[in-house]
């Protein structure tokens, strides 16, 4: 059995390594499929199903979520790829554990991606009303530097699955 463990802080340079690895992935994809129209999606915050307010841990391991998205945007630009900027919508998708989408969460993500591919500006008012409403508005719950060790952080069984239980009041 795999024992659950608490997340640790990301190593220095984690974002730079992520950007380089993402760039290498795109470089290899472009080499293998030079005529392909490649789309890169920014990451979108998940929310535990049934929670009326955000639960996403924005600084999970001390590496800000937005920095990963910036790295995706830069790598996509450097390799001539399109970006489906899911983060720009400012809304959460429904997730089983805050990370893995439910069936509704998958429909939400596909609606966000389709909207980007169709060329629409990120505007939640253009999304299907049966999938999104004002309660899915994203929000950073904490200005802290890392969620590791925070009293509001709750692990969901893995070092990468963590949700924030801070009351957004």
TrEMBL record:
Pfam families: Lipase_GDSL_2. Keywords: Hydrolase. This is SGNH/GDSL hydrolase family protein. Signal peptide: none annotated. One of its GO terms (molecular function) is hydrolase activity. Residues 12-107 form the SGNH hydrolase-type esterase domain.
